[in-house]
Amino acid sequence: MIEIRLSVGYDEYENGERMTTLIENLAASPDAEKLSILTIGDWGQAYENSPDSFLDTLVQHRDSFPLLRKIFIGDMDSEECEVSWINQTNLSPLLVAFPKLQSLTIKGSTDLSLDPLEHENLQELIIICGGLPQEVIHQITNAKLPELQKLELYLGVDDYGFSGSVEDVLPMLQSGLFPKLKYLGLKDSEIQDEIAIAIADVPILDQLETLDLSYGTLSDTGSEALIASERIKKLQHLNLSYHYMSESMVKRWQDSGMSVDVSDQQVEEDEWRYPFLTE
Question: Can you give the CATH number for the domain in which 171 is found?
Answer without folding.
Answer: 3.80.10.10
